[in-house]
From TrEMBL:
Keyword Lyase (UniProt): yes
Official protein name in the record: Serine racemase
Membrane-crossing residue ranges in chain numbering: none
Classification via Pfam families: PALP (PF00291)
Chain's role: Catalyzes the synthesis of D-serine from L-serine. Has dehydratase activity towards both L-serine and D-serine.
Entry's Gene Ontology molecular function annotations: ATP binding; D-serine ammonia-lyase activity; L-serine ammonia-lyase activity; magnesium ion binding; pyridoxal phosphate binding; serine racemase activity; threonine racemase activity
């Protein structure tokens, strides 16, 4: 973990970030008819293991199974009728894809979804279920963006970026509003990090409400570009990623990086085994199904890196953003059928 970064409610509103507490509150009002207010769960058994009081914001119970519907619905319902008439396009490995498909269905407009060929089957099925028009791309982010640009040119559809967009960031920030409304005494929030849309929204909202709150990012070792970026003071991208957390393989954008740079206090890097251990704990003790990206916050809270940091000693009530629950359980079901 690096040294603690910038903080302060004034800072969250005065440095020209893509979103702020006002746009996040506007998003909360705009998306209220279309999203769930998800529960905050706790477990005394997990608290005893971690040694802190944890509050799990369970976006695994959100529509489409992940937090992404917040940003997608805010982006799509912010469009005027002329903008929306030709539909929307996005590229995503899964959760954002399904969220855009669902939000577009709710708005009554077409959604063109560019999906890499290695996306989990359960997430592709969600896109199909919500009526999205799937266009396949290669695995690389360059291929995804290139195909999305071509579709946009062919259809005139509006791009709904998975993270590097004001309305997306503002929508994701509503997670923070709900969590702190329900548990205002939280002093630390641990958030999964990838492209940075979720953690940017969470940080901007939380630090505007409580300037002293600590925002920690949780990142997989096989996709630790954000940690490298914080250390270097500039955006670092990786030639490839290798992690079970398929939702955490994107890189920071020019709108999310300034927020991560200034308002994210530390980044905790964990390996895939720790993520799987945290998933198992969520299943067995919290009694919720989470995907690897959704379990990484708990993995970070359990990590030696966190326990050896100053943040550990300064934290007592920790919010954990359980970002999603779209995990492919086919292997589990097959093993049970074979019994």
């Amino acid at each position: 973990m690096g040294s603690r970064g910038g903080s302060g409610g004034d800072g969250a509103e005065s440095h020209g970030y893509a979103a702020d507490i006002h746009s996040i509150r506007e998003a909360q009002a705009r998306i209220a008819p279309y999203v769930h207010k998800t529960p905050v769960l706790s477990s005394t058994s997990i608290d005893a293991i971690v040694g802190k009081q944890l509050f799990f914001k369970c976006e695994c119970f959100q529509k489409a199974g992940a937090f992404k519907i917040r940003g997608a619905s805010n982006s799509i319902f912010a469009l005027d009728d002329d903008e929306a008439s030709k539909g929307v396009v996005t590229h995503s490995s899964g959760n954002h894809a399904a969220a855009v498909a669902l939000a577009a269905k709710l708005r009554g407009i077409p959604a063109y979804i560019v999906i890499p060929r290695n996306a989990p089957a359960c997430k592709v099925d969600n896109v199909k279920r919500y009526g999205g028009h799937i266009i396949w791309s290669d695995v690389s982010i360059e291929s995804r963006e290139s195909v999305a640009k071509r579709v946009q040119e062919e259809t005139g559809a509006i791009l709904v970026h998975p993270f590097n967009n004001k309305n997306t960031i503002s929508g994701q920030g509503t997670v923070s509003l709900e969590l702190l409304e329900e548990v205002p005494e939280i002093d630390t929030i641990i958030v999964p990090i990838s492209g940075g849309g979720l953690i940017s929204g969470v940080a901007l909202a939380a630090k505007a409400i409580n300037p002293s709150i600590r925002i920690l990012a949780a990142e997989p070792k096989g996709a630790d570009d954000s940690a490298q970026s914080k250390a270097a003071g500039k955006i670092i991208t990786l030639p490839s990623t290798n992690t079970i957390a398929d939702g955490l393989r994107a890189f920071l954008g020019d709108l999310t990086w300034p927020v991560v740079r200034d308002l994210v206090d530390d980044i905790i890097v964990v390996d895939d085994n720790a993520i799987v251990d945290a998933m198992k704990m969520c299943y067995e003790m919290l009694k919720v199904a989470v995907e690897p990206s959704g379990a990484i916050g708990l993995a970070a809270a359990l990590s030696d890196e966190f326990k050896q940091s100053s943040a550990w000693h300064e934290s007592s009530k920790i919010g954990i953003i359980v970002s999603g629950g779209n995990v492919d359980l086919c292997v589990l079901w097959e093993s049970l059928y074979k019994r």
